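Ticket #4471: structure export looks truncated?
Reporter: QA, pipeline team
Priority: medium

Steps to reproduce: submit the single chain below to the structure queue and open the exported record.
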Amino acid sequence: MIAIMRKAPTNIRTAAKEASHERIVQAAARAIRRSGYDGTGVADIMKEAGLTHGAFYAHFESRDAMLAEAAERAGAEANAVAAKVIAAVPPEQSLQALMQVYLSKEHLANIETGCPVSALGSEMPRQSPEVRRAATRHIKEMVDLVARQSPEWGQPSAHERALVTVATMVGTLMLARAVDDPALSDSLCSAALKSLAPSGA
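Actual output as written to the record:
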């Protein structure tokens, strides 16, 4: 009984720390997409998570460690959305559905909760190795996810086509967000979808 009584507070502290860590990572995953890596400060993240700035180093060794975990989380969230889109349609329609959601007005407008690659692509070359590693993993996962929707899955052609598709989707979304002309933004997305559409679609 004594051993149990002594153990309980430790479990409670561990659970509380895990919950706090989760809040920090969630806040950071939104912030990097909203404000960019360089625009994401530790103090702002901790405030958004409802914690003091001083508590940061109880969770992360460095700001880069937090950014890397935030990039992992943002990538996982994007993958989860893609998986839901794919699961909601017949297999032969999955790639087209994925591209339409990716290049939709909703995704265009919601940078904070969208794909981290299109939100942060231009900043990635200047980040630390651990942040770039996390981003690279997500890009590989995106390519693999797209390739798996191809009837030629397993063949080199499916992978090559997936590379082009992902590069086109990401680049299109970055340009569509960059311009201040809504008509041009719409045209960029529409043209990309038309170009990427499978034969006969």
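Status: closed, not a bug. The export was complete when the record was re-opened. Leaving a note from the reviewer for reference: The longest helix spans residues 2-35.
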